[in-house]
Structures are given as structure tokens and as C-alpha cells.
Design brief:
heterotrimer; A alpha/beta; B mainly alpha; C mainly alpha; B: mainly alpha; 2 domains; about 0% strand; flat; C: mainly alpha; two-stranded antiparallel sheet; globular
């Protein structure tokens, strides 16, 4: 009964209890396996580890066990998701725009809709980052410099055709400039190049600015200023209409019952509502989101339309004629 | 093996490999035609280098025959047996299941690797050792190291 | 002086017990091919959540350093480097083991690893903030040249057939390009199979290329896998210490190379051992014997690769940029615990960082007794097990190990396929080491080259980009030296003819023999 009382303590779950009936108290009744589609140490891993610490408190006192299945920028894991056990005890991390862009650009072994995401719990907004001692104090300084020297401004980012690359392309388009994007293997390598003044700036994530004191963020692509970077303007404040970043969520294999899907989504919501978890995430520069099962279809439609448009502009895909996806 | 014929033996194996490498290089270069400039520059240069080195090697070997050390003697059937069992192992573990495949292939490799006489006592001891080793590793990986070994059709 | 206080904080019985447990677990894990330090560290991260941060870190660091050392066992006894950093250990370690000096090789590896580990950890303790600038000074072009420096080893590894060595290296370089390209984003050479999008995983390829040919040849004859000496010789510790003392310059130089190259995120771990080996071979009086079981080769690689542990922590702790994959896991654990890396880690949170560094030093020292005992046991089991048990057990480890790196059955298939290809090629004179070199260095070389080209074009100074940066010029000088030194060296100084006998004859009290 001790566990039951803990459960009742969690505010969000009390509502779910009322809605879903007694079945809720039964899931999970053993540890859940949480597969990260990347190697250990990245942001997907770090945020999952943060959830791991709070998981038992909100999930029947059961643990979550983290495993890694890296390869192909996540595609190895996502292409195998639906052949995994559908009893609800295997869940997997999922990322936007990765699961949208990968199948669009090449045969990656899965389709966007094969990944059944039940909750996108946070996102890291795109950000333009410069070394601490950079001559550029504002994004406008950088844009002015790029206008005078077309192509000379270099942006370090993680990978080609990635969220970082897309942001640099959007910036070029919206500000009417030409810059050079230099892809690196992972955000760590890109940050190394930014801090070492190898490139002019970085097209990367807001978390970089929060976690690396030797960098300075010029602008973030969030809807409003971030609590962890209160002095940094958003792109929109600067007149550039761009909101974007990497969303991270939790997906389940095909065949998992609607009931359990809902419960996984609820557990993630409850962890998101935990003040201690919120504090840790926000300190790390992450922005919590509440895109649960109910809001998922609309969110995905919006993101797919947005990224297809950008991919067409970049010439990555042929303009779509029939609405096949 | 081709290398053991006349006095200055031609390195026929090496020459065949060289021709195959030239083919590989040509294929790589044709593949890079559809790639972006960033993605194509390196493979194209390396494939070019491979073709150049391979051509030089083939020409030099044809003009000046030079064998290389003859492969060690040893049982070719056993070598092929090993390759056969391993092929089954790596292909079936995902289908049949890791534990079953590993146990069967483990015992199969014992058959291939044992050169002496077989006695019932030895066979029993080896089977026991196989079961213990495979089980121990299975438990170590799945329980202690959280590695999701494939379960497949059987286990 | 207050730094000494942290030494006493690290010396609590609990911390020493954790460090020792970590070293033991790490050494055993490292000794099994395919069981990586990354995996061991990742599995233990949740346990450290409930610990004091410094204690948790000490255990993670001890496992890491133990695993790097343990990799030497598999490299020496079954010719299988468990991590890219142990590749060069196989060059001389396995020949030594084959001729019956496996016990000496294992003991030498222990001594060299402790030396290297201490140098790396001391650099971390005393010089971390200034050394971290090295990582930042290294740009894409320097990475490219460093990979080229690693590739100069091809000449040494081709065993008299340079053309075949170069062809093998090109083949390895092409293998490294399979999958989605980091630069350009193209899908390359996957034959339309989504399973190949992730490319060839390096550690499973190493297991296949080195271990499968050994197994294929092991089953073909009833001869013992390793030659066994009839007289029991213990650890051969005195002999090993004598050798280590005589080659103290080599040990010191290799440890420094390991520390410096280890600082470079992404490349350090795999290249440090190769560069140290190549330098040791270039400067040795016995360079002709390298590759045939030369103790100096083992000492160079093993001291360098353990020095990369301390070296790799420098950018991890000072800059927050993980030097190696295990560093990335440890960095993640720190972030989860709410510890911010950066220069302030050494001031505001000095109690954690210095306690951890002292813990790493303690773990490195504990590695000597632990390593000697485990090494002795590993050597004994390898020479005493009958082939009917040894072959399937090693084969089983290649299968399970290559699977477990990324939890992927595709990697296991790639491992075995490359193993068979490598065996066939080796029969026709194409040795596996140049292929491996190409595979390991390919991505580093390509990314550095293309990134440098992009940045150079943007600034309209391509020549200056590749040839005008001081660090690049330094590395290019080393490349030229490595390539042409063998040609000019005989003319520079008349050299004494090197002794032909393998340098393993026991010399007691060799400490003052040189």
C-alpha cells in the first residue's frame, strides 16, 4: 500500500487514475527497458538519465533500464522498433526532426509514421553561438558581416541535412545572406571548433550556450526567451521568423495497447510535472514541452509540413505532388 | 593453391586480388557520380589511389614474377568447417535465438577444433563445459550488462 | 597545499575499495574482446546516482582505466585488440606470445600501463587548464594531418610488400566510408541495405579482422595455440622491470605522446598508440625487429594508451568536450548529478574534481598487482585450455562481443564477413594491419580534410589552411621525418649492428646494467 500512497501523491496520475480505472495501478509491474537510439553521453542519453532518476517515483516504484542502440543517426534503432516486444515494457527515445528528415531523404529502413511517439517531453531550441571573445556582439553584427563578405562566415554544426544545417539555411534565407555550413561529427566536435575559433560561429543548440561557459549565444529559435538564458533574444524578436530545434520524446513499438500507450504518456507527463525534474532540465538549458498522446497527431502534422517545405527549398527532396505521406 | 607450380612462381592470388581491387575502385568511382561534392571527393581520390597502386602491383608482378610465402599446411576441411559453423552462427542468432544458436554452434566448433580421439567421457566433459560457458555468458550479458540478446523463435 | 587535503579525502577506505573493485571489473571487462569500457561505465552510471559524486566518479574512472589496460590481454594472447587504442599492442604482443613469451608480454604491459596512467593522471592533476587549450588549437586540418601521420605506419606494417600494404590501406579507407556521410550527408556504398546506413563499426571490424584469421588457423592444426615454456617462470617481474628501466626513455616519451594526443577529442584514443609505436620504432636501435615480438613495441603502445585516460579527461573536465566515448558517459553522469564542467570545476567544485583525480591515481597504482594477477590467470587459462574449449570460447566472445557494442546483429555479420575477407587477403600477402589503419583513420582524415576545405574556401586561403598553420607544419614535419628517416638515418651516424636475438633474455638487476 506504500506504493499506492506514493502514486496518489503524484498529482497528474490521480487524474489518470480516475479516467482509466484500476488498470493504471498495474502498469508497470516490472522494470521497463528504455532504448536510446544514440550512443551514451549525448543529449538524448542525458535527458533520459534525468528521467530515469525520477521514473520509480511516478511509475509504481519500478525502475527504468537504459540501453543503447546507436547507428545511422538513430535509424538503426527506429527501423527495428516495430519488431520489438509490444507488451509495453520496451520503450524508445524518438527525435524530431530526425524521424521526419531521415525517411524523407533516403531509404532509412522505416517511415516517419512507423515511430509511435506517445510523448515529446522537451526540446532544445536552435541557437547561434559564438566564442566568448568573438567580435560579434549581436546577431545583427554577424549578419552585417556576412552581407559584406558573402560566404566568408562559417557555421559549425552537427552533421549534414541535420537540424543544425536546416537552421543555417533558414538564417541565410530569412536574413538574405550567404554563409558556409561546416558539418562536424556530433555537437561535441562542433563545440570544440566553435570554442577554438576554427569557425566564425556555430549553428547549434541553446544547451551549448548554457553548458559551455566559453561560448556566447547571440539568438535562440524559441518562441520566448529561455529561463536559463534570460538575456538572449529570440529570432522572432530580431525580426527573423524562425522557431525550431530538436524535440525528444518516447515511442513504443506497434501493437502496444492504447491503454498502455496512454499510461506511458502519463508517466512521462508526471515526471515533467515534478518540480525537481523541471529544475534540473531547465538548469541544463532544456525546454520542457507537454506534447502528450492527445496533442501528438496535430504536432506531427505541423512538423512534417514544416520540414518538407524546408527540405524542398534545400533541394533535398522533389516537390511533392500527391499527398502520399 | 596457385602459387606452387614452376620455379619463379607467379603471385597469381595477389594478381587476382589486384584485379578485384581495380574493379572495386572503378565501382566506387561510378557510385560517387550521384553524390554531393563534399561526399564524393574523398572516396573518389582513395579509389583513384587504389586503382593506381593495384595497376602498378599487377604490372610489376607480371613482369617480374615473385611468389609470396606459401600458406601454412593444415586441414582445409577443418578451416571450411569453422567458416561454415560461424556463418550459421552469425546468420541464425537473430532468427532462432541467441542462446540456442550459440549452444549448438559452440558444440559444433568443439567438433571442428578437437583433433584427438573422441571418448564418451571427453565428449560428456566438453558438452558440459559448453553448456556452462554459454549459460554463464548469457547470464552475464543479459542480467549484469543489460545487453538485450536476441530471443528469436526458440530462445 | 589544500590540494593535498583532497588526497586524504580520496584515501578513505570506501574510495579505495571502490577504486579497486573498479580496476578489477575494468580489467576483466577489457580483457574480453568486444566488452568495452564504454559499456562497463554506462552500466554502472545508475549505481553512482546514489553515491557521493566523488566516490561514484572514482569508481567510473577506475573501471575505465582498468578496461584500457585489460585490452592488452586479448591483444597479446589472442591477437584481438578490444579497443582501437590496443591495435599496436598486437603487432609485437602476439608474436611474443606465440614464441612463448606471453607471460613477459603481459607483465610488461602492466608496468607500461601503470607508467602511462600515472603520467596522464599527473598531467590532469597539474596542467589540465593550460593543456585543454591544445584541444582548442587543433582544427580540422590538424586532425587530417594527424590521421596522415598515423597512416605513415603502413610502410612499417606491410612486411616487405609496400604496394600490397598501400592497397590494403585504401581498402580500409573505403570501408570507413560506408554509411551516411557526416560531411555531405550522402548515403554511400550501402548496396541499398538500410542495415549498412550506420557504417562499419570499428571495434567489431577489429575483432573480425584480427581474431577470425587466428581462429581459422587454430582449428587447422593440432599444434598448441601458443608455445609453452616447460619451466614455470612466475610473473617474470624482475626481467620486465629491467626491460622497462632500460627503455625508460621510450616509456616516458610514449606516455607524453599518449597524454598529448589523448587530449584531442574524438581521435586521441585510437591514434595515440599508433603514433607512440611509430615514434618508438623510428628511434629504436632495434627498429628492424618491430613487428616480430619486440618488447619495446608493447611498452610504447601500452604506456601511451593508458596515458590517454588522464589526457582524455582534460578536455572532458575543463571544456566539457568528451575526449573518448567513456568520457562522454562520465560527462553525462556528471551533468545528471548537477555538476557543471568548465574551468570552475577546478575552483568552485575542487573537492569533487581533485578527489576524483587522486582516485584515478590510486586506481592506476592498484592496476599493477591486479593486472599481474589477472594477467597470470588469463595467460594460464589460454595455454592450458584444450583447443576444443579454447576455439569455441574465443569464437563465442567474438560473436557476443561484436553484438554487444551496439546491440546489433548486423555488426556481428560484418565482423565475421570482414574476418573471412581478411583471412583470404592475408593468404595472398595483404596483411590486416594496413586495412585496419585505413578503417580507423578514414573518418578522421575525411572529415578533417573536407571541413578544412570548406573553411579554407570560405576564407579564400586553401593553401594557408592546409600548409600555413603552425601546428599543421609541425605535424607535416613529423610525417616527413617518419617517411624519410629510415632512408637518411644510416648516413647520419654509423650504427652498431643491432643484436639479432630477441631481447628477452633474463637480466637480473638490469636496473644498473645500462
Amino acid at each position: 500500500m506504500e506504493t499506492f500512497r506514493t502514486l496518489m501523491g503524484a498529482a497528474g496520475l490521480a487524474v489518470a487514475l480516475a479516467a482509466a480505472g484500476p488498470a493504471v495501478a498495474e502498469y508497470p509491474e516490472k522494470p521497463v527497458t528504455y532504448i536510446i537510439p544514440f550512443g551514451p553521453g549525448g543529449e538524448s542519453d542525458i535527458t533520459a538519465r534525468m528521467q530515469q532518476e525520477f521514473w520509480p517515483k511516478h511509475a509504481n516504484d519500478e525502475e527504468v533500464v537504459i540501453q543503447y542502440k546507436p547507428g545511422g543517426g538513430g535509424s538503426q534503432a527506429w527501423s527495428q522498433l516495430n519488431s520489438m516486444a509490444s507488451d509495453g515494457y520496451t520503450i524508445m527515445g524518438a527525435n524530431v526532426p530526425h524521424t521526419i528528415l531521415q525517411p524523407m531523404i533516403a531509404d532509412s529502413g522505416y517511415q516517419t509514421d512507423d515511430v509511435n511517439v506517445v510523448h515529446y517531453f522537451h526540446y532544445t531550441p536552435d541557437a547561434v553561438v559564438v566564442p566568448k571573445d568573438s567580435e560579434f556582439q549581436t546577431l545583427q553584427d554577424l549578419i552585417d558581416h556576412a552581407k559584406e563578405n558573402p560566404g566568408a562566415v562559417t557555421f559549425a554544426g552537427s552533421g549534414s541535412n541535420s537540424a543544425n544545417h536546416l537552421m543555417q539555411q533558414q538564417l541565410d534565407k530569412l536574413a538574405g545572406i550567404t554563409t558556409t555550413y561546416v558539418p562536424f561529427k556530433g555537437t561535441g566536435a562542433a563545440v570544440q571548433a566553435i570554442m577554438g575559433n576554427q569557425t566564425t560561429a556555430g549553428a547549434t543548440y541553446s544547451t551549448v550556450g548554457v553548458n559551455y561557459p566559453e561560448t556566447r549565444v547571440l539568438a535562440v529559435a524559441a518562441e520566448e526567451r529561455l529561463p536559463s538564458l534570460p538575456d538572449v533574444p529570440t529570432f522572432q524578436e530580431l525580426g527573423l521568423d524562425w522557431v525550431g530545434g530538436a524535440y525528444r520524446g518516447v515511442a513504443v513499438p506497434a501493437g502496444v495497447s492504447e491503454d498502455i500507450k496512454q499510461q506511458v504518456s502519463d508517466i512521462v507527463s508526471d515526471i515533467n510535472a515534478d518540480p525537481a525534474f523541471r529544475q534540473k532540465m531547465e538548469d541544463g538549458g532544456f525546454v520542457l514541452t507537454a506534447i502528450d498522446l492527445e496533442k501528438m497527431p496535430a504536432f506531427l502534422e505541423e512538423q512534417k509540413a514544416k520540414y518538407r517545405g524546408i527540405a524542398e527549398e534545400m533541394g533535398l527532396v522533389e516537390p511533392q505532388t500527391a499527398g502520399s505521406e | 593453391m596457385p602459387t606452387e607450380r614452376t620455379r619463379p612462381p607467379h603471385d597469381i592470388g595477389g594478381i587476382v586480388c589486384g584485379l578485384l581491387f581495380i574493379g572495386l575502385g572503378v565501382w566506387v568511382i561510378t557510385e560517387t557520380a550521384g553524390m554531393s561534392r563534399l561526399g564524393a571527393v574523398f572516396p573518389r581520390s582513395i579509389a583513384g589511389a587504389l586503382i593506381v597502386f593495384s595497376t602498378i602491383m599487377v604490372v610489376v608482378r607480371l613482369i617480374r614474377p615473385r611468389g609470396h610465402e606459401t600458406p601454412d599446411p593444415g586441414s582445409t576441411p577443418r578451416r571450411l568447417g569453422f567458416i561454415g559453423v560461424m556463418t550459421a552462427w552469425v546468420l541464425l542468432l537473430n532468427v532462432v535465438g541467441f542462446f540456442t544458436t550459440s549452444l549448438l554452434c559452440f558444440l559444433g566448433l568443439m567438433l571442428v577444433a578437437h583433433h584427438g580421439r573422441w571418448t564418451p567421457g571427453l565428449a560428456a566433459a566438453l558438452v558440459l563445459a559448453g553448456v556452462v560457458i554459454v549459460t554463464a555468458f548469457q547470464v552475464l550479458f543479459t542480467e549484469a550488462l543489460n545487453v538485450p540478446l536476441p530471443t528469436g523463435l526458440v530462445f | 597545499m589544500d590540494r593535498l587535503q583532497y588526497l586524504f579525502d580520496a584515501l578513505t577506505p570506501l574510495n579505495i575499495a571502490l577504486a579497486w573493485a573498479g580496476v578489477i571489473a575494468g580489467t576483466v571487462i577489457g580483457a574480453l574482446p568486444g566488452l568495452s569500457a564504454t559499456m562497463a561505465v554506462a552500466v554502472l552510471v545508475p549505481i553512482t546516482f546514489s553515491m557521493d559524486p566523488a566516490s561514484g566518479l572514482i569508481m567510473l574512472g577506475a573501471i575505465y582505466t582498468g578496461a584500457i589496460y585489460g585490452g592488452a590481454f586479448a591483444a597479446i594472447l589472442v591477437n584481438t585488440p578490444g579497443t582501437p587504442s590496443a591495435i599496436a599492442t598486437t603487432f609485437d604482443g602476439f608474436p611474443m606470445a606465440k614464441r612463448g613469451d606471453g607471460d613477459l608480454a603481459v607483465t610488461l604491459a602492466a608496468i607500461a600501463s601503470v607508467c602511462g596512467g600515472l603520467v596522464g593522471a599527473l598531467a590532469l592533476l597539474l596542467l589540465a587548464p593550460p593543456l585543454a587549450r591544445v584541444a582548442l588549437a587543433f582544427g580540422p586540418v590538424e586532425y587530417f594531418w594527424l590521421a596522415m601521420l598515423g597512416l605513415t605506419l603502413i610502410a612499417a606494417l606491410s612486411e616487405g610488400d609496400l604496394l600490397k600494404g598501400l592497397m590494403g590501406a585504401c581498402f580500409g579507407l573505403l570501408l570507413s566510408m560506408i554509411g551516411v556521410a557526416v560531411v555531405g550527408g550522402d548515403v554511400r556504398f550501402t548496396l541499398g541495405m538500410p542495415q549498412l546506413l550506420g557504417g562499419v563499426e570499428i571495434v567489431s571490424a577489429l575483432i573480425g579482422l584480427y581474431c577470425i584469421p587466428v581462429l581459422i588457423d587454430m582449428v587447422s592444426t593440432p599444434k598448441a595455440h601458443l608455445k609453452v615454456s616447460t619451466t614455470p617462470r612466475g610473473f617474470r617481474l624482475g626481467e620486465a622491470l629491467g626491460l622497462a628501466w632500460r627503455h625508460k626513455v621510450n616509456l616516458g616519451r610514449s606516455s607524453v605522446i599518449g597524454t598529448l594526443v589523448g587530449i584531442l577529442p574524438g581521435a586521441g584514443g585510437s591514434i595515440a598508440g599508433l603514433v607512440a609505436y611509430s615514434e618508438s620504432r623510428r628511434t629504436s636501435k632495434r627498429s628492424r625487429h618491430f613487428g616480430t615480438g619486440e618488447p619495446e613495441g608493447i611498452m610504447a603502445t601500452e604506456s601511451a594508451n593508458n596515458a590517454t585516460v588522464g589526457g582524455g579527461f582534460i578536455p572532458t573536465l575543463v571544456l566539457g568536450i568528451p575526449g573518448t566515448p567513456p568520457d562522454a558517459v562520465i560527462l553525462g553522469a556528471l551533468l545528471v548529478q548537477g555538476i557543471r564542467t568548465g574551468p570552475s570545476l577546478f575552483t568552485d567544485q575542487a573537492s569533487i574534481s581533485f578527489t576524483f583525480i587522486y582516485g584515478l591515481l590510486i586506481a592506476t597504482v592498484l592496476m599493477l598487482p591486479t593486472g599481474l594477477l589477472i594477467g597470470r590467470y588469463a595467460y594460464k587459462s589460454i595455454i592450458s585450455l584444450p583447443k576444443a574449449v579454447l576455439v569455441p570460447t574465443i569464437a563465442f566472445m567474438t560473436v557476443i562481443g561484436s553484438y554487444a557494442i551496439q546491440n546489433s546483429a548486423v555488426d556481428t555479420v560484418i565482423m565475421f564477413t570482414l574476418g573471412v575477407v581478411g583471412w583470404v587477403l592475408a593468404r595472398f600477402g595483404f596483411k590486416p594491419s594496413p586495412i585496419v589503419l585505413g578503417l580507423v583513420l578514414g573518418q578522421i582524415a575525411e572529415q578533417g580534410f573536407v571541413q578544412g576545405w570548406l573553411i579554407g574556401s570560405a576564407t579564400n586561403d586553401l593553401v594557408g589552411m592546409y600548409f600555413g598553420r603552425p601546428l599543421s607544419i609541425g605535424i607535416i614535419a613529423f610525417i616527413v621525418l617518419s617517411l624519410f628517416y629510415p632512408l637518411i638515418a644510416p648516413r647520419l651516424k654509423p650504427r652498431r649492428p643491432a643484436p639479432n636475438a630477441p631481447e628477452t633474455s633474463s637480466r637480473k638487476g638490469a636496473a644498473n646494467a645500462d
